[in-house]
Task: structure prediction
Amino acid sequence: MTLEMTPRAYAEQRFLKPFYYILLFTMALTGFGQMPIFKRYYIADIPGMGWLAHYYTTHYFHYIGAIILFGLFAYAVVVYFGLMRKQFQLTWAAYVRIAILALITITGIFRVLKNLPDVVFSPLFTMVIDISHLAFMMFLMIFGILFMVLKKGWMVEK
Amino acid sequence: MSKQISRRSFLKGSLVAACATCASQVPLPASAKSKSGQELATLIDIRKCIGCEACVEACREVNDFKYPEPEKPFPKMYPNRVKVADWSDEEGREVRDRLTPYNWLTIQWATVEVDGEETEVSFPRRCMHCQNPPCADLCPWGAARKLENGITVIHSDICLGGKKCQVVCPWNIPQRQTGVGLYLDILPSLAGNGVMYKCDRCYNRIAEGEMPACIEECPEDVQIIGPRDEIVREAHRLAEEEGVYIYGETENGGTNTLYVSPVPYETLNQAISKGPGQPHFDKVEDQMAHADNLAKAMLIAPLAGLAAAVGRVYKASKKLGDNTGEAS
Result:
């Protein structure tokens, strides 16, 4: 007799999703904080939100968020292929999310590279990277809301 | 806004005019040209500056075509806390005692004791052209950027005037002019507020093999320009042989503008007027150092996630195997 692990038996299904959403929200917040909008529009005046007007602080948190996100991505990929793939499969909505996340990650990596000393990109490339990083994040938010309305999760049972 | 016309400007005007007339477009000497991959730096010898403002006038003359010509009336901006920054009237354009969108180089004065004698020293101040410029790194729009030859420029066609570059600059160098630039074509009332301006070290002249105007027109050869390692070597030679103090070599992780002074910069810093458009001479830590260290951590993060996941999969597989064994 073979003891099959029943679906939803993985701890990751409980903690990864909320962790991912909190992280993504923080990344979006600190990412938008790179633009001079929070002070202009009084958001930084809300008690406890003053840090959003400090560019170095939001930049620092954005980098820390990226570090955690990179670790999370690696963890999720290995756990999915090593543990969950036998019982679950990714939905088409998951593939869309993954594609957008990959684009955000790639443009983010180039943005980090640009910020290193002695790394100089052409003005056009710099602009493309800056604007596309922001645009892909907006896409992720739009598709995230859309998939939530359509009730399209990441995985379905096989 | 300080809109005081420099008391010296009229007197010095004649000197500047003479310089401008006499000096042909001096080519960038071969020794000052950037070798492949090398950044160009300038060395400003404070001991030589007589405060004649020839550099200021030369800068204004050659960069005049880059200055903003704002459209008026300015669009009404929301919310009300968004302030107009306007230097475009006749009085504003004439300001020379601080940095403005129309004055990218200013002369600072300090009365200090040199060799036991009270001495008035002067020195040009402008963008330091950092080696890792926070203004370019943190510009959300890609308008501020660093060139391969070490110059940091702000593209007036792209800049939205959010002033982030000024806030993150350790010396608060860039200055804003409202009513000009790309923001007028997007959401002028809701986002942006003009264009930021600062010294671009005559990047267009350097690209054509000419000297920056402030260096070319200086009658006292206060500034020299060359590959950064040579400029640093020269600053060290002067420090060793003549006992001068160096500023800019390590400030903000290293800049492409080095000063040598006969007095320590703490002394100089206490004696100068500081404030908007009047940069300090404080010690400045590398503002991007934390980000650079975190960037390295980004390389390790996936490996940590990978290791944790492999451990998790191994443990789960082992548990599954044990359970299977018990069941059979």
Q: What stands out?
A: The radius of gyration of chain B is 25 Å. Chain B touches chain A through 51 residues (CB under 8 Å). The longest strand of chain B covers residues 106-114. Residues 289-327 of chain B form the longest helix (39 residues).
